[in-house]
Design a protein that fits this description.
Layout lengths: L6 H14 L4 E3 L4 H6 L9 H6 L7 E4 L3 H14 L3 E4 L16 E4 L6 E4 L6 E4 L4 H8 L4 E3 L11 H7 L6 H4 L10 E5 L7 E5 H4 L11 E7 L1 E3 L4 E7 L2 H10 L7 E7 L1 H6 L14 E7 L7 H7 L2 E8 L13 H11 L3 E3 L2 E2 L5 H11 L3 E2 L1 E7 L2 E6 L2 E3 L3 H13 L3 E2 L7 H4 L6 H10 L19
Parallel strand pairs: 2-4, 3-4
Antiparallel strand pairs: 1-2, 5-6, 6-10, 7-11, 8-9, 8-10, 12-14, 12-15, 13-14, 13-19, 16-21, 17-20, 17-22, 18-21, 19-20
Helix pairs in contact: 1-4
Bound molecules: flavin-adenine dinucleotide.
Flavin-adenine dinucleotide binds next to strand 3, helix 6, strand 10 and helix 12.
């Protein structure tokens, strides 16, 4: 999708924004490198997306630090008919915040206040551009913490996580972001000549959850929190893949409290960076990474030993040096692998239950071209294994072959090589998401091209 906005339109828009609020920070084409940076995310994990997004770039970026500034920008874009793409920290993996049709990128990282923590319920109201680590830092003195965070907790924003993420650390307890109960409400700015500032309850917020910012600008979120625990990081080595897999499957069924469980096949474990003091993985050693509650520490070593696991390292989260285990899991595993080995990409699957037959069949067929990284998650109340396998890139046909085989074996695909909300999910149009776009972005200016159910991407 080529830019549809002329330079003259952008100049007029910028002039109006400067007049309305001289304090608004604008990034113009005069600062091409910064405009380029603000137009990209981590889509380079996918060779397909690299090609798809080539040349997609904003024509103007605006940094807002207050809700009123968001309204100014939304109103001006609506009046000038200019596409508007919202951006948090830009750590998404599918080009979610890449402005396919050019126009304006609105950076919300300046909108970062924790407005409220309700002491009795632990419910928070927080502005969308707040970085998740900073939110947790403010919650910790009250004994609270975010329930679910991505492995990009240190850099990503809460608004970007809700709009573009799926789950991560904590998904073993709390499921995925779209599960009812994980988002209690939203404050939203509409994109209209006179933008409205709306407060939506949980039900009305659901269609904006994981919609890539196509159907409303989130300015604040109401979220539940959980008790803050001193999670313990444990690294466990296994000589047998089958025994490691069995431990990964059965550990969440115990009464031991876990916040994360990652299983890395030996070749991945061997190339992974480890926290200071944790020995490197030996050849053939598969590794299980756990975030466990302090009261799980006593029984865990014996439980693991009975299943062929050898506890090789442990340290409380937040006290170890080097990378924490939190940054060795989810899509950080892919990041570390790709930093060392060129020509690899990845896939995202929810494995069928039991997972072993599907895994075994794919291991047989793909051998060293497909390496396994599993994450334990809770899905519709049941513990399941999700997978983010690393795949040697051999072209789109081979990728499709793998997708078809995995589906045939009962896995559910979340394809990270596509650009729309629907294609990255279950493949079907969500009528509520489209209805929310019609209500809050009637001219279809928000993040054009990313909601397949919206037929005229830009009207
Ligand atoms: C190394 C690595 C590890 C990762 N691990 C995980 C993981 O564990 N779990 C996971 O789910 N994801 C993961 N991701 C993807 C990404 O980091 C997360 O989804 C992150 O939460 C996105 O936040 P962000 O602030 O970077 O959002 P951005 O990338 O800036 O935006 C994401 C999407 O949200 C929209 N958006 C942003 N802010 C708003 C707003 N205020 N209103 C409306 N729309 C908005 C954008 O337009 C875009 O479509 C990982 C990525 C990398 C590179």
């Amino acid at each position: 999708m080529a830019p549809i906005t002329s330079d003259a339109q952008i100049d007029a828009l910028a002039a109006e924004l400067r007049r309305l609020d001289p304090a608004l920070a604008l990034v113009t084409t005069a600062d091409g490198a910064e405009l380029e940076r603000l137009s990209r995310d981590f889509f380079n994990y996918s060779p397909v997306l690299v090609e798809r997004f080539a040349g997609a770039r904003a024509q103007l970026a605006v940094r807002a630090t207050a809700v009123e500034q968001v309204r100014l920008v939304a109103g001006a874009c609506a009046r000038h008919g200019v596409p508007l793409t919202v951006r948090g920290a830009g750590t998404g993996n599918y080009g979610q915040c890449v402005p396919l049709a050019g126009g304006v990128v609105l950076d919300l990282t300046g909108l970062r206040r924790l407005r409220q923590l309700e002491p009795a319920s632990g419910v928070i109201e927080v502005e969308a551009g707040a970085v998740m680590a900073a939110i947790d830092e403010q919650l910790a003195p009250q004994g609270r913490a975010l329930r679910l965070v991505p492995s990009t907790w240190r850099s990503a924003t809460i608004g970007g996580f809700i709009a573009g993420g799926a789950g991560g650390i904590g998904s073993l307890r709390w499921g995925f972001l779209r599960d009812p109960g994980n988002l209690l409400g939203l404050e939203v700015v509409t994109v209209e000549p006179e933008p409205r500032l709306l407060r939506l309850d949980a039900a009305a917020s659901a269609p904006l959850n994981h919609a890539y910012g196509t159907n409303g600008i989130l300015t604040a979120l109401r979220l539940p929190t959980t008790e803050a625990l001193a999670w313990q990081q444990l690294v466990v080595g296994f000589a047998s893949w089958e025994r490691a897999l069995e431990a990964a499957r059965s550990l969440p069924a115990t009464a031991l409290l876990l916040n994360g469980l990652t299983l890395l096949e030996a070749p991945i474990a061997q190339r992974s960076p480890w926290p200071a003091g944790c020995p490197a993985a030996a050849a053939g050693e598969h590794r299980l990474l756990l975030l466990a509650a302090p009261d799980a520490l006593e029984p865990l070593p014996a439980w693991l030993a009975q299943r062929g696991g050898d506890l090789v390292w442990q340290a409380p989260q937040g006290t170890s040096r080097g990378l924490p285990l939190r940054e060795l899991c989810w899509n950080h595993t892919t990041l570390h692998w790709r930093a060392q080995v060129s020509g690899w990409t990845y896939l995202q699957l929810l494995l069928p239950e039991p997972a072993a037959p599907c895994l075994e069949a794919l291991r047989q067929r793909w051998g060293d071209d497909l390496l396994w990284h599993l994450e334990a998650v809770r899905q519709q109340g049941v513990t399941r294994l999700a997978a983010l396998p690393l795949l040697r890139w051999q072209g789109e046909e081979r990728l499709q072959e793998l997708i078809d085989q995995a589906r045939g074996l009962g896995a559910v695909l979340f394809n990270p090589h596509v650009i729309t909300v629907e294609d990255g999910g279950l493949g079907v149009v969500d009528a509520d998401q489209v209805a929310a776009k019609a209500a809050y972005d009637p001219a279809g200016l928000l993040n054009p091209g990313k909601l397949r159910g919206w037929p005229a991407a830009v009207r």
